[in-house]
Amino acid sequence: MANLQIINGEYYDEKSQTKLLAERDIIAxxxxxxxxxxxxxxxxxxxxxxxxxxxxxxxxxKSEMILKLISIFEKNGDSYEKNLSYYLTFNPIAFGPRNxxxxxxxxxxxxxVVKPDDMKLLETPEDVFxxxxxxxxxxxxxxxxxxxxxxxxxxxxxxxxxxxxxxxLVAKDVKVETVAQIEERSHEFPGVLIDIIPQRKYLDAGSVxxxxxx
Length: 214
Known about the structure:
Protein name: Penicillin-binding protein 2
Structural class: alpha+beta
Number of domains: 1
Radius of gyration: 21 Å
Shape: globular
Largest sheet: 4 strands, antiparallel
Number of strands: 6
Pfam family, one: PBP_dimer
Domain Penicillin-binding protein dimerisation: 26-205
Distance between the termini: 73 Å
Strand content: 15-25%
GO molecular function: penicillin binding
Number of helices: 9
InterPro entries: Beta-lactam/transpept, PBP_dimer, PBP_dimer_sf
């Protein structure tokens, strides 16, 4: 019992979460907007969102999976969540736009659960980069650029939180090619989910006139 509750408590907690029924939010599409002549002004189209649910993976396995996922996004020209860049940028490594004051920087460090004794050791952006790389257990085999990409997703995992039943949004409105590649290689992406989310599209004047002409 001691082994179950104390030594391997986190492992068995994650295992148990994967056996729960997943709750998924389904976003209802908004109604179509038309003008007085019945010409569409705003319509809906279906978009795809990529999410990650918590599963029993080691940090190294998680890092490898995240990097593969980002590689697919970049290959297909899809953007993904980069909230870390608001606080720490890469190329150059610098404090982001939300960390330009000392007060903001100190608050952010506390959000990172930085120990009081470590606060004075994190004076430069490079110090913070190395600290986060170690905190997120990003292996030394990765380049700094690869490490930063991995850290962007692990940062959101820490700050926003995620579980087996409440997955983390990683990218939205991705291309069909991205969805196909993830699903074809699903064995490489444990915990990665694809959700269908309605996207609003507003037609410009040219489109409306074109419809009117037809």
